[in-house]
């Protein structure tokens, strides 16, 4: 295990949580976008996206032998997926995107859920900053031992 392993692990978590906050911000910004993507010549509303995280595993043979002693290698983003929840139909006959019955398909984004997810990602980011500062402090104390 490297002396910088804690910093590397925390760095991967910070990167993942920042991307998660970016995707949530995009969801919130497009919560009312009825024209998200052109599919088969017709506009489809914006689809909510979410970040999928997974444990980042080391690929060396030695790391597999020492797996019982390992603290982990952090996280990585395995993908950004679209939510397949059906769109909500809202009656708005004056909307340019309304169908022949006057209904508009609205994005499957729930602003309340996005706010909760954003708060969770933000708290995770803050916790990882605290871990990073603690790791940095321990490394500095380690360097002072030799004085």
Automatic annotation (TrEMBL):
GO BP terms in the entry: bacterial-type flagellum-dependent swarming motility
Record's keyword terms, sorted: Bacterial flagellum, Cell projection, Cilium, Flagellum
Ranges for domain Flagellar basal-body/hook protein C-terminal: 101-144
Top-level lineage group: Bacteria
UniProt xrefs under PROSITE patterns: FLAGELLA_BB_ROD
GO cellular component, as recorded: bacterial-type flagellum basal body, rod
Residue ranges constituting the Flagellar basal body rod protein N-terminal domain according to the UniProt record: 7-36
UniProt main location, coarse: other
Subcellular location: Bacterial flagellum basal body
Pfam families given in the database record: Flg_bb_rod, Flg_bbr_C
Entry-linked PANTHER family: FLAGELLAR BASAL-BODY ROD PROTEIN FLGC, FLAGELLAR PROTEIN
Stated family: Belongs to the flagella basal body rod proteins family.
Quaternary structure note: The basal body constitutes a major portion of the flagellar organelle and consists of four rings (L,P,S, and M) mounted on a central rod. The rod consists of about 26 subunits of FlgG in the distal portion, and FlgB, FlgC and FlgF are thought to build up the proximal portion of the rod with about 6 subunits each.
Protein name as catalogued: Flagellar basal-body rod protein FlgC
